Amino acid sequence: MFASRLITSSRYKTASVRLHQHTRPVLQRHPNPTLRTMSSSGANDAAAALEARNQHEASIKRNPHPDFKAVEASRPDWEESSTWHYTKTRSPDWQWGQGGNDGGESLAKKHVEIDPYEPGRPAVFNYKLMISAIVPRPIGFLSTMAADGTSSNLAPFSYTSMVCHDPPIFAIGITGGIATAKDTLANIASSKECVINIISEHFIEAANSTSVNAPYGVSEWGLSGLHQAPSSVIKPPRVQEAVFAAECKLYELKEFESKANPGKKSGTLVLLEGVKFWVREDAINEEKNQIDPAILRPISRLGGITYGRTTEVFEILRPDFSAVGKAPNAEELLEKASNP
Ligand SMILES: Cc1cc2nc3c(=O)[nH]c(=O)nc-3n(C[C@H](O)[C@H](O)[C@H](O)COP(=O)(O)O)c2cc1C
Question: Beta partners for 98?
């Protein structure tokens, strides 16, 4: 029944397709010029790319629980009372030269050396390792549209960071190359536009739902129940529920070649320039230069299928070198520092 539901967008022109019919009509609209012009072989290529992505997804074995819902039910409820609050840092009396604050405990532990391409190690192991190590990651929630406006897309990407503020440049990593692009990448490559929304606690489930492996042309907007708000200088809409959104124009695309499968593109770096910012009125200060984190309530991505809230925080001053000279052991410290 679900498979034959008609998906339409309310305020914007989006794909209107029957899910059970997706393969042919959807692929004909694909914004990737290679896939669009190759008619039936293009359709086959795109279907093969989707199938390959589905197989890759299955190989990740993301869900660590045989019965996820049972495990979830056994856990405490979401703690609504847990809100943004400050604590001291772990060791407020830390002194220059002290090193760690664990009394040397971490120094007693051994490390394991891992060659990312050691024989028998699948590349997906590096994916799992890296997403559990490079944490927490902000989640860029990308709204894109096909260049001809026929199809809109929404999906989360945690390979997200800002890399420059003048101009405002954001970096997004998307698995796969342009020839076999995920819908988001295909749209960005063709339209050169996208909105980066930041995910907050109040729409995490809906945001996660948009990572569904929907075929091209099926709009995750309708599936998620999230709302579109008009952008100012680009076509793709913003997520109205988002506290922060940046309208962006494509700055540069850089594909990476796989080492595990030479000759194949395994990922694409998308550099985007922010050309307009949107911040919810109750979250921005008068100077329009700071967002209230207690209102943003950002969600971060950790390893596996784990997400994090940021509620317990602390502040530490940015150090000034003049403070080193005032330390009781300044001479010894500076001597050590001059012989690294
Ligand atoms: C929290 C989260 C973070 C994700 N981060 C990335 C990412 O950084 N890069 C990527 O290629 N896929 C990432 N994904 C998977 C994509 O969201 C997923 O493949 C999605 O179906 C892509 O949609 P599209 O084909 O409509 O572009 C992430 C999924 C989730 C749930």
Answer: none
H-helix segments, 109-225: 123-133, 183-191, 204-209, 220-224
CA dist 151 and 141 (Å) reads: 17
Which element (helix H / strand E) includes 226?
none
**Ligand 1 pocket, residue 155 CB under 6 Å:** yes
* CATH 2.40.50.140 matches 10-65+123-312: no
pLDDT digits (tens, 9 = 90+) for 98-119: 999 999 999 999 999 999 999 9
Confirm if 162 and 183 have CB atoms less than 8 A apart. no
Quick one: which H or E segment has residue 171?
Answer: strand 168-175
Domain boundary assignment for the chain: 10-65+123-312
This prediction has a pTM of 0.87
| Ligand 1 mutation pick, 151, 157, 188, 224, max ligand atoms within 8 A of CB | 157
pLDDT digits (tens, 9 = 90+) for 261-320: 999 999 999 999 999 999 999 999 999 999 999 999 999 999 999 999 999 999 999 999
Closest CA to 297 of 201, 158, 197: 201
Atom nearest to 301 CA in ligand 1 = 1
Region of 320 on the Ramachandran plot (φ > 0 left; ψ -120 to 50 alpha; else beta): beta
> Measured on CA atoms in the order 57, 58, 61, 66, is the torsion positive or negative?
positive
Q: What is the DSSP letter of 166?
A: T
Q: In this structure, what token pair is assigned to residue 286? A: 């008068």
